[in-house]
Each structure stands twice: as C-alpha cells, then as structure tokens.
Specification:
single chain, seven-stranded mixed β-sheet, about 120 residues, four-stranded antiparallel β-sheet, mainly beta, globular
Length: about 120
C-alpha cells in the first residue's frame, strides 16, 4: 500500500501563487511517476503535471509557463509551485503516484486539496 499526504492549497487572488506538496510513503517503487491532477464539479479529472524519477516533466498546456513541478526523491515528495494563478485554476487538486510493475500500472491518489482563485 501507498499513502499520499498533500499539503498546501487555499484561497488566493488572481495573479497570486500557491505551493502544493505531496509526500508518499509505504511500498514505493523506484520507477514511480508522481504529480497532480485537478477536478471541478461536473468535469473529468485532468492531468496538471507529472514528473518521472529522473526529473522529466509533462505539463498540461493550460499551466505551461506558470506552474513548476519538482521532486525530492530522497523524501518521496513532489512540489507544485503555482504562479500567475487564474480563476479557472480553481479546483480540487489530487496527488497521484503511478507504478508500472510487470506491465501492470498501479495508481494511488491523495485525498485532494482545494485551490480557490478569486478574481
């Protein structure tokens, strides 16, 4: 089992910044990919940013140039620095960790943290 503990989030004005953190514990595999998804009511959960153990990142087009995802492998923790926040960034943000073991992908999710951007 894997546990994900998310911190950060909250209320911020448009143009402001927030930082989310997600720490993983439990049965961690070396090939894990970690990152963040977000979801608003009535919409599907969408990928925000993901990062490999080697530091390769993948960002949604809507956040490129504004959000920065990094990780500390020693702490099994990822950090999402969100700058230039927009009202449309308002959502519940979920940390995700993925493992591929013998061709099978395992996914674990955090409990979610709310980010609200006021205009």
């Amino acid at each position: 089992q894997v546990q994900l503990v998310e911190t950060g989030g909250g209320l911020v004005q448009a143009g402001g910044s927030l930082r989310l953190s997600c720490a993983a514990s439990g049965q961690i595999w070396a090939n894990d990919v970690m990152g963040w998804y977000r979801q608003t009511p009535g919409k599907e959960r969408e990928m925000v940013a993901m990062i490999t153990p080697g530091g390769t990142t993948n960002y949604a087009d809507s956040v490129k140039g504004r959000f920065i995802l990094s990780r500390d492998n020693a702490k099994n923790t990822v950090y999402l620095q969100m700058n230039g926040l927009l009202p449309e960034d308002t959502a519940t943000y979920y940390c995700k960790i993925e493992f591929t073991i013998m061709g099978n992908q395992l996914n674990y999710w955090g409990q979610g943290t709310q980010v609200t951007v006021s205009s």
